[in-house]
Amino acid sequence: MFAGLIARSLTMVLSLLTVPLTLNYLGAERYGIWLTISSLIGLLAFTDLGVGSGLLNALSRELALRNAVGAKTQIASAAMILCLVAITFGVAFALLYPLIPWATVFQAKSSIAISEVGPAVGAWLACFLVSLPLSVGVQTRLARQEGYLVHITAAAGNLAAVFALLLVLHAQLPLPALVLAMAGPPVIASAVNCWVLFSPDASSLRSNLGAADLRIGTQLLRTGSLFVLLQFAMAMAFTSDTLVLTHVLGPQAVAEYGVASRLFLIPAGIIGTVLSPLWPAYGDAIARGDVAWARRTLTRSIIGICTIAVPIAVLLIIGGQRLIRIWVGDSVSPPPALLACFGLWTIFSAVGSAVAMLLNGAGEIRIQAIAAIAMALANLALSIWLTFQIGVAGVMVGTLVAYLTLVLGPMSIYVPIVLRRLTERGQRSLASVSM
Questions:
Q1: What digits encode the pLDDT tens for the residues 408-423?
Q2: Which residues contact residue 180 at a Cβ distance below 8 angstroms, ignoring those fewer than 6 apart?
Q3: Which of 39, 108, 124, 228 gives 242 a disulfide partner, CB atoms 3.0 to 4.6 angstroms apart?
Q4: Cα(233)–Cα(230) distance, integer angstroms
Q5: What is the rounded CA–CA span in Å between residue 292 and residue 308?
Q6: What are the pLDDT digits (tens) for 386-400?
Q7: Helix, strand or coil, per DSSP, at residue 177
Q8: What's the pTM?
């Protein structure tokens, strides 16, 4: 955990360092376009068909039961599907690329932005598609409860990206080159992780595509379909904000929103590092019938994560504008209302993430998908209306209202039901064994 926190902290520091560098180099318009492109790529998280998340659950179960053969088959089947998905989407994008008016989509005004936006999208998408099959290595690490290695790998990739960014800035290369500099090194780091993890001498889980099983692949797709709904809905809910701002207020507002969101990556990164190992841990405990541990851990995780999130959020709300002036200068100045909304979001999402780890580990995806879809639709409608009414902070107010009423509220009712059901199932299993 400690190594993971250090690595995650390094990643956050590097991410913060890139903001003034890229903002000053690109200017507000091109920086806003860059953030919008990254948000669109975030919407593509669903393109793995939920296979990555399905693999994490299945692999956690196989490892808990010490079934190495089953684990290898799961890994190979997931890798095969993700390779096919990446190839399919790559071909589709190549065919559609010349037909899309990229400058209109991203509201590009200057001649340089108009010429760069299409190639920049292509560069970012290429890196994303290459990373799809490599994500098998990440999910395998998480299933083995080696999340700290995932964070170390990410930190190494981001450190390399900063050096690549400095080279791009020194050579004064265009936006597509900057995209490759930022997105390429993490992909290379992920490839190195897979090579180390699945090398013949390093892992008992080494496999190849020849070990893929169509039946297992179908099961992963079936389980993953719910994750697809969940991922797509959450991506829509959390990345549509920049799209709304782009079309309602323009790239300058996206830049204000982007700088504020990057500032609040500090608590979000810490929260993610602390909570992410709980997903496979819950899966392992539930597979062994230890529901009491899951119940205790949920309570402790919510309390513990709030003790982290609340004070950091308050400090960033109070001192956020001063920090941003020191950080990026006066070119971008997010309003206090936006910072306050991000602070509240930090607290709400921390609680929601703690609950989601239990539900993911228990395989309770359907209810999360339903809640996320409802939230995404409500958030989009509220964000558009509120942005017209109150400006850039409107997108976050819409997110807060939708998340509180359609996710946290229903989950507070549903989680006790899940725990009771798991307890009863464990008691029945014990009774059948004793008979």
A1: 999 999 999 999 988 8
A2: 123, 127, 164
A3: 39
A4: 5
A5: 25
A6: 999 998 899 999 999
A7: helix
A8: 0.69
